[in-house]
Design goal:
Strands 1-2-3-4-5-6-7-8 form an 8-stranded antiparallel β-sheet. It folds into 2 domains: about 35 residues; about 110 residues, no CATH class. Helix content is about 20%, strand content about 40%. It starts with 8 loop residues before the first helix and ends in a 9-residue tail after the last helix. The protein is globular. It has 2 helices and 8 strands, in the order H-E-E-E-E-E-E-E-E-H.
Length: about 160
């Protein structure tokens, strides 16, 4: 089959060697890429206070999918598989902490609140809504007080994993 690609015996032998080298490279490279596979998601079980717990004692399930720049896309579901939270997490000292845009949801699917986290604490303006989706008064969390709040909550943001 490959011999029909080229004309002449010398060209055929040379081109078959090149083609087999290229194919071998493609198979080797493709195998290495497939061995890595897509980024793996992680599941963390949480109790009613949103703290890590054993699977059999959990009220919530946090699913983390690796995203760009060391972040994870996180979604939290309750025991009935209702979406509770969507947001971005970062891993620090073996823990996953909130870092980026977040949305919290009521059991009926309406947004409860949304805003930004910075290394585990809320910062800036957070939009809030009632159970029917009507906007309530925003809350403001000054970024200047984030370090003090982080310290009071014992959140260590050093980069040692």
């Amino acid at each position: 089959m490959l011999s029909t690609i080229v004309l002449g015996q010398n060209c055929k032998t040379m081109n078959l060697k090149k083609l087999s080298t290229i194919l071998l490279g493609m198979v080797t490279f493709g195998g290495a890429v497939m061995a890595q596979g897509p980024p793996q998601s992680k599941t963390i079980h949480l109790n009613a206070m949103m703290q890590m717990t054993a699977e059999g004692q959990s009220s919530y399930r946090l699913t983390l999918i690796p995203a760009a720049d060391e972040h994870y896309k996180g979604t939290i579901y309750d025991a009935l598989e209702n979406l509770k939270v969507e947001g971005r997490y970062v891993q620090r000292n073996g823990l996953y902490i909130e870092d980026g845009h977040f949305k919290y949801f009521f059991p009926n699917g309406q947004i409860e609140s949304e805003g930004e986290y910075q290394a585990g604490v809320k910062v800036g303006h957070w939009k809030r809504f009632d159970f029917q989706g009507k906007q309530k008064q925003d809350r403001y969390y000054p970024p200047s007080s984030a370090s003090a709040r982080r310290q009071s909550m014992n959140i260590d943001i050093s980069t040692d994993n």
